[in-house]
Amino acid sequence: MKKIKSFTVDHDLIGKGIFLSRTDRNTYTLDIRLAVPNRESVKPEALHTLEHLGATYLRNSAFSDSVVYFGPMGCLTGCYAVFFDDISYADAIKLIRDAFEFASDFEGKIPGSERRECGNYLFHDLDEAKKTARAFLEATNGWDEKRLAYPSK
Hints:
- This protein has 153 residues and is an alpha+beta fold.
- It has helices spanning 44-59, 89-105, 126-139; strands at 17-23, 27-33, 67-72, 78-84.
- It has a four-stranded antiparallel β-sheet, with helices on one face.
- Helix 1 crosses helix 2 (89-105) and helix 2 (89-105) runs antiparallel to helix 3 (126-139).
- The longest helix has 17 residues, at 89-105.
- The protein starts with 16 loop residues before the first strand and ends in a 14-residue tail after the last helix.
- The model has no long low-confidence stretch (mean pLDDT 96).
C-alpha cells in the first residue's frame, strides 16, 4: 500500500508553522502546526474551539469561496486547511494568520457551540484556544511562502 505523503515527513524536524502538505488537481492543503510533534500537543477541547473559530472566520472571509476545509489533525498538533488553487499561498498564509488573530482575541459565545449545532458541544476551552492561537501567531510572525516547505535534514 502506498504511504500517505504526510507519513513520509520526518515529524521530529517539524516545529510550529505553516507548511504545504500536498497539492492536488485544483486544491492544496496547508499543515498548520500549532505544537511541536512528539513533544507537545494541543489540548483537545482547545483544538475543537479553534476548529469552530477558524472555520467560522475562513468561511466569512473575502476568500470564503476558496476554502474547502478547515479542521483538526488527529495527532492533536495542528489543523489542516484545504484551499482551491485560486488563492495564492501568500494570501492563504495571511488568511490563516488572520483567523488565528481572530481566535486569539475572541470574546463571547463560541460559534456553533449550541447542542443542536455541534456533536460535542460541551467539549470546548476558549481560554486555552486563545493561548494556543497567540503562541502560533508568535511562532509564525513574518511567515511567507518561501517557508512552506517541510524542514529536512
